[in-house]
Amino acid sequence: xxxxxxxxxxxxxxxxxxxxxxxxxxxxxxxxxxxxxxxxxxxxxxxxxxxxxxxxxxxxxxxxxxxxxxxxxxxxx
Length: 77
Hints:
By secondary structure, the protein is mainly α. The protein has a domain at 24-53. Helices cover 68% and strands 0% of the residues. The chain has helices at 4-31, 36-59. It is elongated.
């Protein structure tokens, strides 16, 4: 199975997100305080992150089952 490219892409996307979070942290410390809108966006980020954690954790519970889901699809040899 070739999953390395998917993992590499996900890792790159996470690195981008981490960089953005670092930029926001610096902005809130050095440039301007958070606003109510900022707090709402942060809450959305946290909710999305929790959903991604749940989805990633669920990957470990997926059992391999090559049985076709479409009854009209032929069986694998």
